[in-house]
Design brief:
Blueprint: H1 6-15, H2 20-29, E1 37-38, H3 39-46, H4 52-59, E2 73-74, H5 88-97, H6 109-112, H7 122-131, E3 148-156, E4 161-169, E5 175-183, H8 194-211, E6 218-222, H9 234-242, E7 246-250, E8 269-272, E9 281-286, E10 296-300, H10 306-315, H11 324-337
Parallel strand pairs: 1-2, 3-6, 6-7
Antiparallel strand pairs: 3-4, 4-5, 7-10, 8-9, 9-10
Length: about 350
């Protein structure tokens, strides 16, 4: 069971999440007329170049707050790139109106690139928080005491996000029920930072479940645990914050390598940090059944050992690619999100 008031945990966690959209808006507003910056420059100002794809996606949205200034952001190659109006010609014309020379869809960055104002590098701070996150002591996991297994996932609509937790009995298949909570995902999707997008949603849901005394004994999380570049994926952080033993289950391998040349159905194959570090096992890949060729990637979250993790996941594999609790959570959250 959880070791804290999860409503308080949810509020404390959410208070530490920065508003990246506001920060991008301020940076773009600071670009002088007749000057440009790049998507990568903006991402670095936020603290991590990996955010450049999100920055570009945000600025291409005609509804974003700085759409009228987004023509001043170009690609790192000097190519003007796309524009929120869906017209590169419009972007070129806006740049030329401000005195910027554009030849064959490119500009000379050395002549027009501006220096962005100092920022707090929010992503660097989040990365440090995740890297240095201190998990409380993890109690020994007793598989025999597991009565309910939960699976938690999030689906998104244009306006809202829906977190859903489906609970099954200890057999891994018999559905008890699904609990949902809708809210706004204010933090964008950036690879490696999923925890800061989805944990606030999950914590709100789990706080409601705690009040109703229906928290599961163990929780399968759609995402990674130890199988993460900072060894601190969403499953580990969520478990440590709530006190619920967790397992990360992902469909995409974001780090590590699988040394096995071929995956066999039902066989757990280790995922190691690199070929040069074969003893550093981050998680396991397994093809769940013969109906799919695609594996899932499973890793310890919080309060869990490898043997118990494998036993629980195996109990929950019943014909779908995802374990049953996550499958039902995904299905319910999608159904609700589609109506919002």
């Amino acid at each position: 069971m959880a070791h804290a008031d999860l409503r308080e945990v949810a509020e404390t966690f959410a208070a530490r999440i920065p508003n990246l959209i506001d920060q991008v808006d301020r940076l773009v507003q600071a670009i002088p007329s007749g000057s440009v910056t790049t998507y990568g420059d903006l991402a670095k100002a936020l603290g991590d170049s990996v955010a450049s794809r999100w920055v570009a996606t945000y600025l291409l949205d005609p509804q974003c707050s700085v759409a009228e200034l987004s023509h001043r952001v170009v690609r790192s190659t000097g190519e003007v790139g796309l524009h929120s109006s869906d017209s590169c010609d419009t972007k070129i014309e806006l740049l030329r109106t401000e005195g910027i020379v554009v030849n064959s869809g490119k500009i000379q960055l050395a002549a027009y690139r501006t220096e962005l104002p100092p920022t707090i590098a929010s992503l660097s701070k989040l990365k440090a928080w995740q890297r240095d996150f201190e998990c409380p002591d993890q109690p020994a996991f007793d598989l025999s005491q597991v009565e309910t297994i939960g699976g938690i996932d999030v689906s998104y609509s244009k306006r809202n996000a829906v977190s859903a937790c489906s609970c099954v009995q200890s057999d891994g298949e018999t559905v008890i029920g699904t609990h949902t909570c809708a809210g706004q995902a204010t933090f964008p999707y950036i690879t490696g930072y999923l925890a800061f997008r989805e944990i606030p949603l999950h914590l709100n849901l789990l706080a409601e479940m705690q009040t109703a005394a229906v928290l599961p004994d163990v929780l399968l999380v759609d995402g990674n645990g130890r199988l993460h570049s900072r060894r601190m994926g969403i499953a580990t952080m969520l478990g440590a914050l709530t006190g619920i033993p967790t397992i990360g289950v992902a469909k995409k391998l974001i780090c590590g390598v699988v040394p096995a040349p071929r995956l066999k159905v039902g066989k757990w194959e280790p995922i190691v940090a690199s070929k040069d570090e074969p003893d550093d096992i981050l998680g396991y890949a397994i093809v769940p059944h013969t109906k799919t060729k695609h594996p899932i990637y499973v890793s310890r979250g919080f309060g869990m050992n490898d043997d118990s993790m494998k036993t629980i996941v195996e109990r929950c594999l019943a014909g779908h690619r995802s374990p049953e609790p996550i499958y039902w959570a995904d299905r319910e959250s999608r159904a609700i999100a589609s109506t919002q």
